Request: fold
Amino acid sequence: MKQVYEFASHSAGTNQGLLSQLVVPRPVAMVSTRDATGVGNLAPFSYYLPITGDPPLVGICFGLRESDRGTKGSYDNLMAAGDFVINVCSEIFAAHIEDLAKEYPADIDEASLHGFTLVDSHRVSSPSVAEAPAQLECIVHKTLSLGTARAPVVFVVGEVLCAVIDDSVLESPDLDHPLIDLHALAPIGRSGARSFIRAIPDAIYHQERIPYGPPSFKGQPFATESHVAV
Ligand SMILES: Cc1cc2nc3c(=O)[nH]c(=O)nc-3n(C[C@H](O)[C@H](O)[C@H](O)COP(=O)(O)O)c2cc1C
Reply:
């Protein structure tokens, strides 16, 4: 038997909680920014996705602070600077993710508080975390206000100007054909409720890529005459 959950019959929080448990695992963007006075900021965001390769776009959804319903420090900083950095959330952040999500006062640099080093980036004014194995340096491309007055969010689309990748996570050093070593990258994913997911070797499996189109399903187990391209 299957149960049908109607979103219209539940609260915004319960709805978001269910989405967070069914849209899994999600990547975590460790976003680093700086405010106008130079104080660094580092916080995790998992409502995050790649959008397109041309131009290279990624998106992150920013809600409001729980404590005072003000906008988040990362969001304020990236809107003021016009740029931000996404540090790939690898194992080095695992023990700190929840702590980095606390609503620290604006004059606290969460990165150094947790033993991370903010360094200058290559193409943007926002800093990068030196210890992270890879970064996406982004400029703000577009913003889209969504949600309701009770639960407003801003979806920030970033254009990625460059990726900075440590040799230790590059399976091939040829950047014309970049291949990332997933085991070395050791990304952490977000699941629902209080769960996180590690890309440990036993959890990773491979499948050969098949051409996606135009369809020629000859030899495939689900082939039918009507699927065969003419
Ligand atoms: C794993 C994880 C994922 C999160 N994802 C988001 C998100 O996608 N959007 C959001 O607004 N807040 C998200 N948060 C909450 C922010 O990290 C939190 O509000 C943080 O205090 C923001 O810091 P800031 O005000 O310094 O930017 C997430 C928290 C955790 C632990």
